[in-house]
Write a structure and sequence with these properties.
It is built from 23 helices and 19 strands. The chain has 791 residues and is of the alpha+beta class. It is a multi-pass membrane protein.
Length: 791
């Protein structure tokens, strides 16, 4: 290999083409930076939840333990597979304020630092020796409007009062504690035995005798084998159930709290997983479109750059440089673009570290602020450098293929078929033929340009459908089961009569609740609801089928039906917490309004008669629909004497609500990418066919006919891609929303925004005609001789 000759050619290439190489390098660097930045944000978004799990020492198993059965509590640490554990005291307390509101607090000694250790997002952790300091969870802080430094009064309930929550207990009989909020904490979940807030060992020592229960948290000896770990969980559930055998029935455990433990590290909220999947797909989809578009732009730009030196390569070939040496020289020259590309890509990737997890996943981020992913930065810089130099090598080799021999003469078919509709048929022929470059090099086929348009349009359509479906879900509480204006906890007959007589109440239903086990072998428990109409009709969100009308029938929650793989007509065996069993036939799929913080889409609905057969004393609440304009007045009046809850937004929907802006942003970015791709594709197509246009002019075509032919070329290039993209986007959007809805527990029917999708086709076509007309006008003003000479 002649290195002096290679270096000399590289220097000559730099002298005449360094500006073009630098411009291409900047474009490639920006594209690579966007791609790598999207990867960084996608990784940070997708890893937020598992990183929070690691940082907080999320427990593998947690369980309610009855305060009146100390033997069960003492056995918790010795359950099968338990490596380390912490048993805390738990209290239910009334927060003193204008409305009736309850919260739960846990505290206890001997907690390991790597077990149940919330991330402090504001303030600090309570001091061990301070009995009046409180760390509240983010959900309680948001619901009660608490901030660091606030003082709140807690009126503690006794164990017997907690056990009488469903029938009423009067004023709290426990101690009154004045507490200071010193910090706000973040955990993957604040539900269940963890409660709403954490206090100190000093608080536990001061109030241990009045605890309403115990909460057990443990780390399990997982092996990593899914089957073995599942068997370990089953053994633990069975061993804990065995501890209750032969002992008196506890006051609290039963319908009010579950006897079965939960497994936070394996039972992740499906809405979290669905949100994470949507975010990842959106970011990676955007990165894919940018990568494909950037690759095409870079390849075409380098190809045009090297084709301008075709005559030089023939001279170099005559002087004795073979194809590999000529390509090597141009790769050396391409460093003028590759190095800036790598630097720009690395800079953009580093800057992406300021972007925290997007959407709802931001609430799981344990490390706020700037975060650089150095492995991605370093690998990305090397990758962009390699891709640019590789593209330079390939395009220079393709451009130099005809240097060793004279260009082959080609014969063109007669164009007599174009006499009647010259613009139409010539434009079609130009589009379908793609491009033929000097030296016999073949350019980008028409289907490749159409494929690029199809991918981008599909992304826009799918994003639009996802955004419309999310917006409809968030704006329509009935779709996620919230059909009432107010919910009253622990409703009693006297209060129901008063409410039914109130003219501000349009509809009222008593909802009786009991806990049932669907799969006794796995001890999976859900709530069973029975709606007893008192006044008017409070509807239930029905996905498909019908509600149960007689004993022996059941309507399953959407998430339960999916998990248990049950459909209408199937049977379900249930075992109540009172030990009574029944076999029920599925008549419908519903989204029941959850009680007591149950997950969305869980639970099942049965008839009141069936509920009476299964439970001796079910819990009761009330769902109330107010006369239009009267819900605020009712809430203010009833909230003074009863525990009343506004519908609010369940955590699962709040998680998805964090995605509302993503489809809009993604569709907008894809539209920008599509516009840039159309500009590049159409301008390049017109330029590639400048020789053809000049030939048409020589043969007698008018400037108008030439422009019309180029317009047909532009339309034919984008129309197949638009049509295919719309169809593909409709399918992708439907599948994507089905995954989100089924995992969240809501109806899976997708919202199709007709007009935005319908308008995509004419918008892209008009845009292609405009974008194609601009270079066509310029070409029409170019002398024919210059076009033939430069082609």
């Amino acid at each position: 290999m002649s290195w002096p000759g290679i270096v000399a050619v590289a220097r000559a290439e730099l002298r005449v083409g360094w500006r073009a190489l630098l411009a291409l390098g900047l474009v490639a660097g920006l594209v690579g930076g966007l791609l790598l930045g999207a990867a960084v944000v996608a990784d940070r978004t997708g890893s937020a939840y598992p990183r929070l799990v690691d940082r907080t020492g999320l427990d593998d198993v947690r369980a309610y333990l009855p305060a009146d059965l100390p033997e069960v509590t003492a056995s918790f640490a010795g359950l099968p597979g338990v490596e380390e554990s912490w048993t805390a005291y738990a209290w239910i307390a009334q927060i003193e304020g204008p409305t009736l509101q309850y919260t739960s607090v846990i505290a206890g000694p001997d907690r390991q630092e790597d077990l149940v250790n919330p991330v402090i997002v504001a303030g600090r952790a309570p001091r061990v020796e301070a009995a009046d300091e409180l760390l509240v969870g983010e959900p309680l802080a948001a619901a009660a409007g608490l901030r660091v430094g606030d003082r709140i009064t807690l009126k503690m309930l006794t164990l017997r009062q907690v056990a009488r929550f469903d029938v009423g207990f009067g004023e709290p009989e426990g101690a009154t504690r004045r507490m200071t909020v010193v910090g706000i904490g973040r955990m993957p979940s604040w539900s269940g035995p963890l409660g709403d807030a954490l206090s100190t060992p000093a608080f536990a020592a001061q109030n241990a005798g009045a605890a309403g229960g115990r909460s057990g948290f443990a780390r399990l000896a997982y092996t990593g084998d899914p089957a073995a770990d599942e068997a370990l969980r089953d053994r633990l559930v069975g061993a804990l159930a065995q501890e209750y055998v032969g002992r008196p029935r506890p006051l609290v455990v039963g319908n009010y709290v579950p006897e079965v433990p939960v497994f936070p590290t394996t039972q992740v909220d499906p809405a979290v997983a669905a949100s994470e999947r949507v975010l990842r797909l959106g970011l990676w989809g955007f990165a894919l479109v940018v990568a494909l578009g950037g690759t095409v732009v870079l390849g075409q730009g380098l190809m045009r750059h090297h084709l301008r030196g075709g005559a030089d390569q023939r001279v170099e070939n005559a002087l004795g440089l073979d194809g590999a040496e000529r390509a090597t020289a141009r790769v050396l020259a391409a460093l003028a673009g590759a190095v800036p590309a790598a630097l720009v890509a690395g800079s953009v990737t580093v800057a992406a570290g300021v972007i925290e997890p997007i959407g709802s996943q931001a609430r799981f981020e344990p490390d706020s602020g700037f975060r650089v992913d150095w492995p991605v930065v370093l690998l990305g810089v090397v990758g962009v450098l390699a891709v640019f130099l590789g593209a330079a090598a390939v395009t220079s080799a393709l451009a130099g293929r005809g240097a060793a021999a004279a260009p082959a003469l080609t014969r063109h078919r007669s164009v007599r078929w174009a006499v009647r509709w010259p613009a139409l048929f010539v434009g079609l022929r130009l589009a379908l033929r793609g491009r033929t470059l000097p030296g016999g090099a073949s350019g980008l086929p028409a289907f490749a340009a159409a494929a690029g348009v199809a991918v981008t349009v599909a992304g826009i359509v799918a994003s639009t459908m996802l955004g419309a479906s999310l917006q409809r879900l968030v704006d329509t509480p009935e779709r996620y089961g919230f059909t009432s204006d107010l919910t009253i906890a622990d409703a009693r007959d006297a209060e129901m009569r008063v409410l039914a007589a109130d003219p501000r109440v349009a509809a009222l239903s008593e909802v009786e609740t009991g806990r049932v086990t669907l799969d006794p072998a796995r001890s999976r428990q859900v709530d069973a609801y029975a709606h007893v109409p008192v006044k008017g009709d409070v509807p239930v969100s029905l996905v498909t089928g019908r509600l149960p009308l007689a004993a022996g029938e059941v309507a399953l929650g959407a998430r339960v039906a999916g998990r248990e793989e049950k459909a209408i007509g199937d049977t379900v065996d249930v075992l109540s917490s009172d030990g009574r069993s029944a076999t029920l036939t599925v008549t419908g799929i519903v989204v029941p309004q959850p009680e007591r913080g149950a997950p969305l889409g869980e639970g099942l609905i049965i008839t009141p008669e069936q509920l009476d057969d299964l439970f001796r004393q079910p819990l009761a609440s009330a769902h109330l629909v107010a006369v239009p304009g009267q819900s605020t007045s009712l809430y203010e009046d009833v909230g003074r004497r009863l525990e009343v809850h506004l519908p609010g937004m369940p955590p699962e929907i709040d998680t998805l609500a964090g995605l509302l802006r993503l489809p809009e942003i993604l569709a907008g970015l894809l539209a920008v990418v599509a516009m840039a791709g159309l500009v590049h594709t159409l301008v390049g197509a017109v330029r590639r066919h400048s020789r053809d246009a000049a030939v048409l002019a020589v043969l007698g075509a008018t400037p108008g006919q030439v422009r019309a032919a180029l317009g047909v070329l532009a339309t034919t290039t984008v129309l197949p891609g638009v049509a295919a993209g719309v169809l593909l986007g409709l399918g992708v959007g439907r599948v994507l929303w089905w995954q989100v809805a089924s995992q969240t527990g809501v109806a899976p029917d997708v919202a199709v925004p007709i007009w935005p999708i319908v308008l995509i086709v004419p918008a892209v076509l008009v845009g292609s005609l405009v974008l194609g007309a601009l270079p066509a006008l310029r070409l029409a003003r170019t002398p024919v001789a210059r076009s033939l000479h430069g082609a």
